[in-house]
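Async update (no meeting this week)

Hi team, since we skipped the sync, here's where things stand on the single-chain job. The sequence we agreed to prioritize is pasted below, unchanged from the tracker. I ran it this morning and attached the output directly underneath so nobody has to dig for it. Comments welcome in thread, and please keep replies under the output.
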Amino acid sequence: MRPLTDYHFGVQSQGLADIIANGGYGAIGSHGQAHGIGSHWEVWMLAGALGNMAPSKLLRYMVRTFLGADKDLGSLEPGKLADLMVLNANRSTTFTTPPISPW
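Output:
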């Protein structure tokens, strides 16, 4: 098996962590080479640099701001479309299990 230093994901995730630490925003994006799992890989990669809870914040809050939809989406406020995540694992301890329950 190749050492982790042969791969670029650690540098990329730490770069995004640095941007967020300095007040910037982040988002994920998968190009479709690995349909369905690409976004999960990006989230797992980010958990390595940001901690287990930060990817949830990135997926729920930063993306809507990044897209300019923060006035319309994502929180429990009058006039907004709220998001709801049903989790099947404790995100503060792990981020490698699928985040959505099978219901």
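Quick observations from my side:
The helical segments are 9-21, 38-50, 54-66.
The two ends are 37 Å apart (CA to CA).
Reply here if anything looks off.
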